[in-house]
Design brief:
The complex is a heterotetramer, with 2 copies of chain A (85 residues) and 2 copies of chain B (149 residues). Chain A is of the alpha+beta class and 85 residues long. Chain A is built from 2 helices and 5 strands; from the N terminus they run βαβαβββ. The radius of gyration of chain B is 16 Å and the shape is elongated. Classes of the chains: A alpha+beta (85), B alpha+beta (149).
Chain lengths: 85, 149, 149, 85
């Protein structure tokens, strides 16, 4: 396992507007949780701090808790409240 | 099978997909675009999604419903720009008995709203645009007031 | 408005009748002719009704449902000879929110089965004919075994 | 009010098969209830006695109790278990 974990973070809908982008590579030290990645992502871009501290997230396209561990190469999506239907 | 589509939804085709001679009850739900939301006049809207996850989540949701009720279920959600009255989502559940059909249909709709990563951006008559937040959280409405026009 | 029809039911026309820009949720139920009933193979069936009362009872039922839920509701029940897979009944309820649409639709279907004087005669693969008794009472099944040719 | 009440009795579905007819004029003494008319109708035709003693009835096209009073010219329908839908 590498010392540094690279996670592909995705921003959707209003979070994408806030972060000014749709994705970003976030690098955290190992071990790390989804919450650690969120914390770092919120600090990386002006505006992104307005994303909630504890947003809904999906890890590798499955709903996940913020306490879930992340691994190198994971995809972590920050999901605003869903509004389908 | 794609659950997300970028063309008008043909609900009759969905009914055909689940209908069978031993399934006498067919419950359907159509969600159409309303002209008002929270007292604001809506002109049009657009749906977007985290597409690969939304497809996977729809699949999981239908498998789950099919394991709880003896029903065949079809689902489509439209993405892109929609006009007032357009069908945004259709769920059809067919079963031998109407109770299972109704319950499976309603379960899928309720869960879809909570689990499937789809978002809606409304364009209002006053020219503003907002991401719809069904939870009504203030922090999420704020950025939504920014015009994307 | 006739609730009883002797032609194929056009469920899309019923949806059009209740759809409106402020009604975003449309719940539908289609009851179709099944090929089996109580383990017997059904070939076709025919519905008959006490027609003036059935029309009046449908009207009362829809008025009642509309007073309980803020929904627009359409209903048609077919009479005469039907084949397997034909739509026998369609109920469509449209409302601003899906809960009201689902509940009004289900209420109308449940009540229709109990209150509206419509009867069903099934023709089986073995040549016999029976009036369907959903209550399963023995005394009522007996005469039903008589063949009506 | 006449001493004798004429009620138009309707038989549907399996009850029509049992009674061998779709309708009959039933005459009862006044006062009378829907139940009195049913009792008489069941006795009038061979086979009609196989109609239940207390069937569902509709008086003038509305669901009714057997205890409801009937008047001259009323329409009383004997309803087998309904099977719409």
């Amino acid at each position: 396992m590498p010392e540094r974990i690279r996670v592909n973070v995705l921003f959707f809908a209003s979070y994408s507007d806030l972060a000014g982008r749709e994705s970003a590579e976030v690098i955290v030290g190992s071990p790390a949780t989804a919450g650690d990645v969120v914390r770092q992502a919120r600090a990386m871009f002006p505006g992104a701090e307005r994303i909630p501290e504890r947003p809904l997230v999906a890890l590798n396209q499955t709903h996940s808790k913020l306490a879930a561990p992340v691994a190198d190469g994971d995809e972590l999506a920050l999901l605003p409240p869903m509004a389908g239907g | 099978m794609a659950f997300l589509v970028r063309r008008p939804i043909d609900e009759r085709a969905l009914v055909q997909r689940v209908a069978a001679p031993d399934r006498g009850g067919i419950a359907c739900f159509l969600g159409t675009v309303r002209n008002h939301h929270a007292n604001r006049e809506v002109r049009r809207l657009s749906y977007s999604a985290y597409e690969p996850m939304a497809e996977a989540e729809c699949r999981r949701l239908l498998d789950e419903a099919a394991s709880r009720w003896p029903a065949a279920i079809a689902l489509e959600h439209r993405l892109g720009d929609l006009a007032i009255g357009d069908v945004a989502v259709a769920v059809v559940a067919a079963a031998a008995h109407r109770e299972a059909a109704f319950e499976a249909c309603r379960y899928v709709m309720d869960q879809l709203k909570h689990r499937v990563p789809i978002w809606k951006r409304e364009h209002y008559a006053d020219g503003t645009v907002a991401w719809v937040d069904p939870t009504g959280a203030q922090a999420l409405n704020a950025p939504a007031e920014v015009s994307h026009g």
